[in-house]
Amino acid sequence: MNIFVVDDYEQLSKKAAQVVAQRVQAKKNLVLGLATGSTPVGMYQELVRMHENGLVNFGLVTTFNLDEYVGLGSDDSQSYYRFMQANFFSHVKVEKSFIPNGLATDFVGECSSYEAEIKSNGGIDVQILGVGRDGHIGFNEPGASRSSRTCVVSLDAITMQDNSRFFADISRVPNRAITMGIGTILDARECILLANGAHKAEIILRALKGPVTELVPASFLQTHENLTVILDKDAAKKIISCQICVRV
Ligand code: F6R
After folding, report:
1. pTM score, two decimals?
2. What is the mean pLDDT of residues 199-217?
């Protein structure tokens, strides 16, 4: 595990974008797993800036998003489909992009075809992740199994509360999502976990330094052989004394 601790959100966004750009430069047809939420917004802005300045070319890159709310489609402003359009795909041309379909009529079929699509594209090379305050990665909430694959899950009360900031009120937050499983995520050849803010410090400590347990799904990342963690100093404040921290 490599942990980078940077001063603030701007530095985190730049560092994450630099790492992604390096991976794309090293493999032009990279298969890149993407996350939504507040954490990666600055990374996308930086990647768009790099793309506009000719520093990185995503033209041959294939992307797979982690998750989507059940019931929200491309016409819904809070869907992750729309998030990705607004933050990345309307600015940067990629070869192919996949996002789970929140309006699927057959969710079992949707989940298995998402897994099959990942496989037929050669598997995910690099997976970007944020973490929920309850330890979720993707929308794999506490209790999710280490071997889970893409599936429909119920969202925890804490996740619905946290994500209600994007909706008119909490009653509008979907209570289910379609998400890559933990097994799907851990199959990526590299995982990059991003976290910023003091509100993530406790879960970062539990995820990276606590026991590996289904109660903290992000703790399974400790078992990944190629994990990069990029934190701002607020998110890192409870692990700051660890031996493996690298300041950049
Ligand atoms: C988003 C996702 C989630 C978020 C997590 C943190 O696609 O899969 O696991 O990464 O909920 O969200 P933010 O970044 O809003 O704190």
Report:
1. 0.95
2. 98
